[in-house]
């Protein structure tokens, strides 16, 4: 099309100038050298475009060096060998293998280029064949084509690295110094991500920071609340700061899908899984562990998805996240991962295996770190058709010593629950009945902190009850179980510490509750029993100390429930799994509804976690004892705020009313002026407002018929 | 008080209208028969038979003598309210969506839908005193903007016509020349189809309800946005109390998207808001389908709602209602 246009223009110009194009030899025209008359050559453009592509387009090409230098006769044979090696790894593009030949000697130059379909394959090929020994003299040296420029630029002389002047960072924990001790939360709705204060006193959220398209899939707080992590196509990023949210660090990991922080937020684990170009292969998984503060990759793990999908209940469902589980405590010392028949424990000092070898555990199904100590609880199912019992054992790290072991028979499944202080461990064991037709449930309760770790067995009164939910009281000694088969299950509360004998005993059972999930307050003592999904969002706020219900409420269709980190407020949310009702409610700990925010396409609600308190337990107890003394000040403040609030509200309302009255007054004036016109429009009939009609009683008499009749009067009847 | 359930229509309700005295209630539905009821006890007085399609809208004259109805059978009809006799039929080439008598009842504005390459249009017809002299000629014809016009009403002194519809823009037209005078701007205007439009008793302001889950209150003369009422469901119908500063919004999930799980999911309540403070006061439940029509009795002591479920619910307010303080 463009050509035609240009030709036409030229023809027009020629006509104007009186030239005959057919007689002109266009090729004889030459521009003076070094002069382009302001016409940019097409070639330049092409060149520039090429340059642009250079940045991105060659990611799937590798360069294989140290090939044998062969004469023309052996060229095809060498090419065949190379092709055979490299097509095992991925699909080489058509004409994707190019081995240049020296035109003078007709021999190959000892290297070749291979183009794959995807950069992932190219990377894999580089990894697998770098150092491949073709024979003794020829050890492959493989590099990415894109890296070449970078290698070329390396200066030959070593230069002293520049020391950057120290720039003081922001106080990343500034939000903890809020004068009103409020908590923050992040919400994601539509394309916007917003961080807000929960201003319960004013019964509304107070905005902190808002940004559209902040993340490409989800956001996540670090476990101590210092950072907010966002996930993008190129990698993950963390944000934080004192006044607003600035980007603190980026972690490059293309196509990252999942992220996980270590509990002390020193490290960030990122995960991606790529579709292989050959559909029969498993997905290729890349896991990177970054140092959060420096952004350096501390260790990476690559492999097929099969290597990472081991153990767990299903085993076939794919990778269960997090792949790496971190040991408890804030020092982030160990992390571990299950493999086939092995448990690999790594330490973060060197990022290598503890004792340089994995722990051999035949058929390991599941494991779990203690939240506070370097102790692993692991579960091995029955083997050999029941000849070898199932087993739960506690293993100390780094000594790899077995602290305690319990053999269990006819087990179908096991779930491990640690109490948040690592004091207790509950193992929910599902056993087959003798007929193997059904299962029943029991609990094995370990007291970790006591000598020899005594184990108690707890069975529900009705052994056939299904366990719907189980949760330990945070920092406490109680646990709650929702159990039952019917649509209205029972809720039982147990304590590990009652009376003199420290035996487990039941405190109470609440019959027939509409609940299928339970949420302990992070401070213990209170629970929210929730009926999510099928139960339409029934909520019951229960006080475990007093064993009484504080309030029942409903957040219709609620999907998510989360306590704030201090245990003062509860957020219930309806996320976009439902089409209607999207938004969240904030409740006080005792079930008083505080406020409600509706947002369409509501995806996430997350409270910003708080680091653990620095107060010693004794100090905390002291504060609790003298609570009255401290609370006075805050109560007075609360009252001031509520007074101010009602005053403000009153003022606002008065303003609104005044505005409205003014507007109405103005309108009435004009309306009056027009009343004559209106009357005219109505043929002189009095206009609307003047004509207040009155209800009058009108008596209408209508004579229907008149007839005369002679009545025979009878006297003397009275 | 217990609402009075009026079951006279076999198809979803489309429109409700009280006469000026507030003793009669006219209802239109997708069945073909507009119906008149006693507004006090919900007794059915009669139907107006003659339409051959869904009836979308109606209006009654000030003296309660004439009724005009607009229907999907591409006609608008004039009726004798008392006898139910058909007085005149305006024929169009597309469904008539909205009808409204002017002040003085000498003119009527009728809107027609876009249909078979015809754009939407606003017709102004002269209504003759004597039905025998009635003609079908248009006084003014405004070839409409994009999309369907859902409602058109007269502005003050019949000088303007206010229209709103699918394109979410509210427009004020000169009723004599047919020229566009004002348009609501993108900032303050609705984001989705405007489904309903109701004038205040004195005509000073009007309320629009939209599928963008909000209702907005506008100045009739200047088309300035005065108030916005945000709700959580698409708004199909709006009404304003002539007595108190209350507005009522009705709506609910789109009929096609209604799930069968729970009636609460659909939000088929009529929601009351304080007109000035824009705060929710309460709700009236009952319908088991979206609310399509709402109307206030001119005395402000009762209101009725019509739903997709085919029922009209007539609510007389309890004495408590008149003492609501927020």
From TrEMBL, chain A:
It is found in: Cytoplasm. Residues 686-695 have a biased composition (Acidic residues). One of its GO terms (biological process) is formation of cytoplasmic translation initiation complex. GO terms for molecular function: RNA binding; translation initiation factor activity; translation initiation factor binding. Component of the eukaryotic translation initiation factor 3 (eIF-3) complex, which is involved in protein synthesis and, together with other initiation factors, stimulates binding of mRNA and methionyl-tRNAi to the 40S ribosome. Belongs to the eIF-3 subunit B family. This is Eukaryotic translation initiation factor 3 subunit B. It comes from Phaseolus vulgaris. The lineage of its organism: Eukaryota, Viridiplantae, Streptophyta, Embryophyta, Tracheophyta.
UniProtKB/TrEMBL annotation, chain B:
HAMAP family: eIF3i. It is found in: Cytoplasm. WD repeats lie at residues 6-47, 48-89, 142-183, 187-228, 284-314. The keyword Repressor does not apply. Component of the eukaryotic translation initiation factor 3 (eIF-3) complex. GO terms for molecular function: RNA binding; translation initiation factor activity. PANTHER family: EUKARYOTIC TRANSLATION INITIATION FACTOR 3 SUBUNIT I. GO terms for cellular component: eukaryotic 43S preinitiation complex; eukaryotic 48S preinitiation complex; eukaryotic translation initiation factor 3 complex, eIF3m. Keywords: Cytoplasm, Initiation factor, Protein biosynthesis, Receptor, Repeat, WD repeat. This is Eukaryotic translation initiation factor 3 subunit I. InterPro entries: eIF3i, WD40/YVTN_repeat-like_dom_sf, WD40_PAC1, WD40_repeat_CS, WD40_repeat_dom_sf, WD40_rpt. Belongs to the eIF-3 subunit I family. Belongs to the WD repeat STRAP family. Its main location: cytoplasm. It comes from the Eukaryota. Component of the eukaryotic translation initiation factor 3 (eIF-3) complex, which is involved in protein synthesis of a specialized repertoire of mRNAs and, together with other initiation factors, stimulates binding of mRNA and methionyl-tRNAi to the 40S ribosome. The eIF-3 complex specifically targets and initiates translation of a subset of mRNAs involved in cell proliferation. One of its GO terms (biological process) is formation of cytoplasmic translation initiation complex.
């Amino acid at each position: 099309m463009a050509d035609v246009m240009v030709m036409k223009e030229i023809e027009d110009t020629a006509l104007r100038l009186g030239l005959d194009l057919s007689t002109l030899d266009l090729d004889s025209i030459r521009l003076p050298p070094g002069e382009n008359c302001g016409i940019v050559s097409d070639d330049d453009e092409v060149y520039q475009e090429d340059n642009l592509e250079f940045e991105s387009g060659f990611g799937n090409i590798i360069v294989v060096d140290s090939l044998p230098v062969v004469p023309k006769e052996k060229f095809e044979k060498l090419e065949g060998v190379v092709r055979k090696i490299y097509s095992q790894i991925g699909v080489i593009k058509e004409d994707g293998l190019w081995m240049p030949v020296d035109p003078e000697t007709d021999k190959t130059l000892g290297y070749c280029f291979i183009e794959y379909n995807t950069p992932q394959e190219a990377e894999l090929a580089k990894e697998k064949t770098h150092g491949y020994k073709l024979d003794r003299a020829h050890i492959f040296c493989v590099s990415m084509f894109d890296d070449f420029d970078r290698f070329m630029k390396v200066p030959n002389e070593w230069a002293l690295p520049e020391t950057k002047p120290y720039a003081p960072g922001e106080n990343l924990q500034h939000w903890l110094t809020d004068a009103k001790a409020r908590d923050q939360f992040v919400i994601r709705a539509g394309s916007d991500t917003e961080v807000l204060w929960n201003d319960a006193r004013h019964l509304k959220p107070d905005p902190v920071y808002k940004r559209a398209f902040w993340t490409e899939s989800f956001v996540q707080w670090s476990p101590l609340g210092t950072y907010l992590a966002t996930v993008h196509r190129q990698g993950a990023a963390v944000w934080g700061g004192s006044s607003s949210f600035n980007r603190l660090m980026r972690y490059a990991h293309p196509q990252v899908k999942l992220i996980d922080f270590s509990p002390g937020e020193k490290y960030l684990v990122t995960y991606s899984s790529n579709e292989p170009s050959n559909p029969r292969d498993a997905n290729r998984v890349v896991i990177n562990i970054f140092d959060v503060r420096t952004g350096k990759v501390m260790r990476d793990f690559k492999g097929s998805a099969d290597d990472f999908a081991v153990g767990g209940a299903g085993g076939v469902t794919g990778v269960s996240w997090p792949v790496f589980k971190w040991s408890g405590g804030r020092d982030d010392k160990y992390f571990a991962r299950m493999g086939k028949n092995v448990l690999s424990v790594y330490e973060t000092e060197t990022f290598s295996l503890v004792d340089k070898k994995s722990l051999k555990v035949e058929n390991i199904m599941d494991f779990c770190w203690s939240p506070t100590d370097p102790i692993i609880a692991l579960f091995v199912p029955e083997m050999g058709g029941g000849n070898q019992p199932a087993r739960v054992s506690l293993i100390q790290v780094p000594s790899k010593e077995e602290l305690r072991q319990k053999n269990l028979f006819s087990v179908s499944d096991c779930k491990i629950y640690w109490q948040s202080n690592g004091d207790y461990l509950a193992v929910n064991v599902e056993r087959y009945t003798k007929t193997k037709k059904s299962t029943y449930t029991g609990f094995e309760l370990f007291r970790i902190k006591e000598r020899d770790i005594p184990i108690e067995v707890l069975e529900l009164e009705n052994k056939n009850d299904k366990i719907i939910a189980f949760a330990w009281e945070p920092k406490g000694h109680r646990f709650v179980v929702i159990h039952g088969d019917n649509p209205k299950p029972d809720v039982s509360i147990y304590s590990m510490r009652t009376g003199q004998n420290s035996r487990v005993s039941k405190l109470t059972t609440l019959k027939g509750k509409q609940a299928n999930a339970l949420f302990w307050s992070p401070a213990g003592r209170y629970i929210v029993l929730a009926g999510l999904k099928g139960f339409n969002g029934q909520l019951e706020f229960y006080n475990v100390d007093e064993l009484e219900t504080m309030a029942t409420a409903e957040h219709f269709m609620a999907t998510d429930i989360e306590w704030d980190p201090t245990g003062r407020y509860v957020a219930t949310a309806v996320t976009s799994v439902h089409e209607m009702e999207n938004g969240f409610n904030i409740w006080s700990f005792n079930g008083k509804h505080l406020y409600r925010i509706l947002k369409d396409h509501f995806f996430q609600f997350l409270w910003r976690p708080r680091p653990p308190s620095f107060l010693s337990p004794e100090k905390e107890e002291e504060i609790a004892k003298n609570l009255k003394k401290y609370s006075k000040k805050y109560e007075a403040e609360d009252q001031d705020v509520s007074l101010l609030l009602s005053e403000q509200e009153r003022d606002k309302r008065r303003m609104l009313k005044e505005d409205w009255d003014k507007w109405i007054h103005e309108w009435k004036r004009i309306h009056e002026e027009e009343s004559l016109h209106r009357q005219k429009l109505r043929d002189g009939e009095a206009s609307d407002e003047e004509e207040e009609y009155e209800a009058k009683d009108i008596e209408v008499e209508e004579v229907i018929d008149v007839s005369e009749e002679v009545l025979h009067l009878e006297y003397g009847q009275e | 008080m217990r609402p009075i359930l009026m079951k006279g229509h076999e198809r979803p309700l489309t429109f409700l209208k009280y006469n000026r005295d507030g003793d009669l209630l006219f209802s239109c539905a997708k069945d073909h028969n507009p119906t008149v009821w006693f507004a006090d006890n919900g007794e059915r007085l009669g139907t107006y038979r003659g339409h051959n399609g869904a009836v979308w809208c109606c209006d009654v004259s000030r003296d309660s003598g004439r009724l005009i109805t607009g229907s999907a059978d591409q006609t608008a009809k004039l009726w004798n309210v008392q006898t139910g006799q058909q007085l005149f039929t305006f024929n169009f080439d597309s469904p008539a969506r909205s009808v409204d008598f002017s002040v003085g009842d000498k003119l009527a504005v009728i809107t027609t839908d876009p249909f078979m390459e015809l754009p939407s249009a606003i017709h102004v017809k002269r209504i003759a005193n004597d039905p025998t002299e009635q003609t079908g000629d248009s006084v003014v014809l405004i070839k409409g903007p994009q999309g369907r016009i859902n409602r058109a009403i007269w502005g003050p002194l019949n000088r303007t016509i206010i229209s709103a519809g699918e394109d979410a823009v509210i427009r004020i037209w000169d009723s004599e020349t047919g020229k566009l005078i004002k348009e609501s701007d993108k900032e303050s205007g609705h984001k989705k189809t405007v489904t309903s439009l109701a004038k205040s008793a004195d005509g000073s302001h009007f309320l629009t309800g939209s599928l963008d889950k909000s209702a907005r209150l506008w100045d009739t003369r200047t088309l300035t946005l005065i108030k916005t009422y945000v709700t959580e469901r698409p708004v199909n119908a709006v009404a304003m109390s002539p007595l108190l500063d209350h507005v009522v919004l009705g709506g609910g999930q789109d009929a096609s998207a209604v799930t069968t799980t729970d009636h609460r999911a659909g939000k088929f309540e009529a929601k009351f808001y304080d007109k000035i403070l824009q705060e929710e006061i309460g709700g009236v439940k009952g319908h088991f389908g979206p609310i399509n029509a709402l109307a206030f009795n001119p005395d402000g002591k009762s209101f009725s709602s019509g739903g997709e479920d085919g029922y009209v619910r007539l609510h007389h307010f309890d004495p408590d209602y008149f003492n609501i303080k927020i």
